[in-house]
Amino acid sequence: xxxxxxxxxxxxxxxxxxxxxxxxxxxxxxxxxxxxxxxxxxxxxxxxxxxxxxxxxxxxxxxxxxxxxxxxxxxxxxxxxxxxxxxxxxxxxxxxxxxxxxxxxxxxxxxxxxxxxxxxxxxxxxxxxxxxxxxxxxxxxxxxxxxxxxxxxxxxxxxxxxxxxxxxxxxxxxxxxxxxxxxxxxxxxxxxxxxxxxxxxxxxxxxxxxxxxxxxxxxxxxxxxxxxxxxxxxxxxxxxxxxxxxxxxxxxxxxxxxxxxxxxxxxxxxxxxx
DNA sequence: TGATGTGTTCTGCT
DNA sequence: AAGCAGAACACATC
Length: 274
Known about the structure:
N-terminal domain of MutM-like DNA repair proteins, Helicase, Ruva Protein, domain 3, 2 domains, five-stranded mixed beta sheet, four-stranded antiparallel beta sheet, 6 helices, DNA-binding
């Protein structure tokens, strides 16, 4: 489940492998979710050079030398792989890009096919639905701004953390981890949390995201970097996926329940509801 | 065979 | 207006 650290890991991997390279061939399967049409998509990519790579929330933005930007969302199971051309492409490689003077190619792989690749003029990219309404970046905002956003709304903190219009990049894993660190119950109402506690939560989010980035992300489902290697943060998880295991603070079992129609993992003893 | 989980958008309800 | 629930998307995994 790529969240901010996993997407950053992919962006870093792309910079390290294909930055500045020119696309010489494009293979698109009918299973690929792309925009615009296959014909125009191919035409916009062939001959273009990768100019820069950016992350915005969980979105990947790749600027091309022709004034267009390739926008990729990995959703749950999307991957970019940079592999030798001689390695056969698999069933779930939906788009394959050949590169100039390179015996490796770049594949977009997604076994659930929720992920997509879209191309728009660079000048119009941030007005696209899905990018236009995104909230601030948690690693670039102040604790005050963070507290303001949650203080002025009334909803459960866990679903609020997942809402990309409030802040970006946090998904199910890092929301559960951050709330455990801050000893906040996932159902706690945002407007009832003190400014000091919200600032503390923001600090935990930053610490956790940064540590996960240094560890190349968390691989619980299928996440892997551009080099096809898994991340390493899963060994630090204290709440997510630890249902039934003793809480590392109070030894009581970690609970799992549906909150806002997503599974939440937390300690009902040291993460207080009020 | 069928339920589950996953990020996001959309619809419809309160 | 704001918040929430449920559906939809697709499919490997259990």
